[in-house]
Each structure stands twice: as C-alpha cells, then as structure tokens.
Amino acid sequence: MSDVTVVPAERRVFIDKQTPQAYRAQAAAAEAAGAAAAEAGLDRGLVELVNLRVSQINGCAYCLDVHTRAALRAGETAQRLGVLPAWRDTQVFTERERAVLGLAEATTTPSDAALQEAAYGAARAVLTDQEISAAVWVAIAINAFNRVSIMSKHPVRRTAAN
Fold it and tell me: Which PANTHER family match (predicted)?
C-alpha cells in the first residue's frame, strides 16, 4: 500500500467556481449535446440513463444524485434505475436503449477496444448516424462533468425526502 495524502473535501477547490468561464463553456457544450440528442429523437429519459450509467462507471456521487432525480422526473422507473448497472442482463431495455448504453460505456472506457468495437457495431445496426453522434456527445459531456465533480469533491447531502 502506498502512502497517499488525502486532501479533505473542505480543502478541495471547486473548479467550476474557481474558473467559471471554463465551466460555462462546458455547460454550453453539454447543452448543445442535449439539444442534439433531442433533435435525434433520444428522449430525456434515455439521456438521463446515459448520464447515470457513465456516472456509475466513473463513481461520481454528485452526478449520480443529480441525475437519479432527473431520471425519475423524466419518467424512469425505480426498476430500470436499479438494474441499470446490469442492463445487459435484463429485458427491461429496448434494443435501441441498449445500443445507446453500449456507446456510452465505450465512450467512457475508450481503452477497451473490444468493448468499443462491439458497442459501435451494435449501434450501427439500430441507430442512425445522428443518434450515434448525439449519444456519444451526451456521454462525452457527462464524463467531463463527472471529472469536475470528482476532482472538486462536490458534496452530496441528505435531502428531506431521504
């Protein structure tokens, strides 16, 4: 085990606040990705599933908190959210949703060439060029936000509904 100095959360720099112009640019890119998804016909629920799946892979507690609530507002069910980490082993996602989730995972773990090729092949079979592009851009956007929140240690606090 190596010696690691852990910087307490209260000493972390919230990079979104420290460099707001960069954060605003990232937010604009995410907004454009969301607009591309809507234009391609990817509904809000599916976009939130991508946001959640990518955030699960990256271990971003803050984004998981935000996007779980957003997915529920978009009409996602507790069942689908609960089985999302094992989406391949369920029958609750359509072929199209599976293709989008596969692309999101491949975008998040680009060093896994076999996963990337399998996901792209599955996507090509059921998604249009516009849908593929939009799905990848949504995954890129949430990956960036995950890094902002993880490095800043954005807190997740208990809400009144918990």
Answer: CARBOXYMUCONOLACTONE DECARBOXYLASE-LIKE DOMAIN-CONTAINING PROTEIN (PTHR35446:SF2), SI:CH211-175M2.5 (PTHR35446)
End-to-end CA distance of the chain: 36
Say which amino acid occupies 153. Answer: K
Quote the strand ranges of 29-152, DSSP E. none
* pLDDT value of position 6: 84
Are the C-beta atoms of 48 and 56 separated by less than 8 Å?
no
Q: How far is CA 26 from CA 19, 32, 40, 70, in A?
A: 11, 10, 21, 19
Q: Mean pLDDT per 10-residue run, the chain (162 residues)? A: 78 95 98 98 98 98 98 98 98 98 96 94 98 98 98 91 61
Environment class of 119 (CB within 10 Å of its CB; exposed 0-12, middle 13-18, buried 19+): buried
Q: What is the pLDDT of residue 48?
A: 98
| CA distance linking residue 53 with residue 95, whole number of Å | 16
Tell me which residue of 149, 155, 158 sits closest to 58, measured CA to CA: 149
Residue 85 CA to residue 113 CA, distance in Å, equals 20
Radius of gyration of the chain (CA): 16
